[in-house]
Amino acid sequence: MVRKCLGKEETYDLRMDTVMLIGRVASFLGQEVCVSEFVPQLPALASDAMFHVRKSFAICCKDLCSVIGPASTEEVIVSIFYRVYMYKYIWFVHE
């Protein structure tokens, strides 16, 4: 269901709400489920065309990182934030 809600054909409101929901339920689902179901979706969310989806992704990262552990955080999340930081046209990331 999460994969369907995060599809590009869905409205950005649904994608944004799904990202926030992921952050809220991560602690209940545990590390194994989060790593297998949510982590593969993160690069697409971080590069979503809609700012609000990317913002929701950034907000939910704290909760998700505390569940997926340091190895997955370093492997996926840090590389995503580095790529976002390097986008020179997104000025508010640097502020």
UniProtKB/TrEMBL annotation:
This is Uncharacterized protein. It comes from Amphimedon queenslandica. The lineage of its organism: Eukaryota, Metazoa, Porifera, Demospongiae, Heteroscleromorpha.
